[in-house]
Design a protein that fits this description.
Elements: H1 3-23, H2 30-36, H3 38-41, H4 60-72, H5 80-84, H6 89-100, H7 115-124, H8 135-138, H9 156-167, H10 177-184, H11 187-199
This protein binds heme C (2 copies).
Amino acid sequence: MTSHRFGRAAALAVLLAPLAAQAGDASKAISLSASLCASCHGEDGNSAVPLFPKLAGQQAVYLLRELKDYKSGKRTSEVMQPIVSGLSDDDLANLAAFYAAQKPAPGTVTDPSLLSVGKNLYLKGNDANGIPTCESCHEVDGSGGGKFPRVAGQNVEYSLEQFRLYAAGKRTNGARVMKTIAERMTEQETRAVAEYMASMP
Ligand code: HEC
Ligand code: HEC
């Protein structure tokens, strides 16, 4: 190996090191998740209780930010804050990596009659009321990416609760766009899009 090539490899390693440190190690979160999280979110992150979010297959970047925001109090939850307050940033990164790597189970649709309205809003938005398409940020298949959360297969009750929190200005740690959207959606659109997200595999 020439010194020139070694130099590039070393520079790359230095550049990538912080990323690797942030990425987390899923294997280090196995016992932590089992003891602290599984009772509500399921062993593999497929929360069975409709009000608890599914974490399986969720974007790691998104998961880590939300966990840090619960810890700092930027995202408020009386349930989540005390649970994560004693965990280190490494623990949070490992937990994020663990849940991102789990296989998401199919969601549960509770009212199939709303699916076509929900699909239309998700893919086309509602120009008249200034609601953008959801797929532009959450992707056509609902898988999200990076800081944009996966919404496919999410529990309907959890999604409805988040729309209520956004509209009431009680979830403000992230993008402002979700508050605007939640305020502008009708009750029927809100229910319909939650059902459609749950229906996405
Ligand atoms: C007592 C039940 C309970 C336990 C135990 C619990 N959670 Fe939660 N979790 C919830 C609830 C309820 C919410 C929704 C809170 C809200 O509205 O912000 C939530 C939200 C979350 C979210 C946000 C998901 C999203 O889509 O935005 C993450 C991430 C999360 N929990 C991870 C964890 C981890 C990791 C643990 C273990 C260290 C854990 N939870 C333990 C009930 C629980
Ligand atoms: C401009 C980008 C953008 C658009 C458009 C958008 N979202 Fe979001 N959405 C986000 C981001 C970023 C988050 C992450 C949390 C936050 O910032 O509050 C989010 C969060 C969410 C959440 C909470 C997920 C969770 O696990 O807690 C739901 C549900 C959601 N969006 C649904 C929708 C729906 C439905 C639409 C279309 C009507 C939509 N979003 C359009 C960017 C967008």
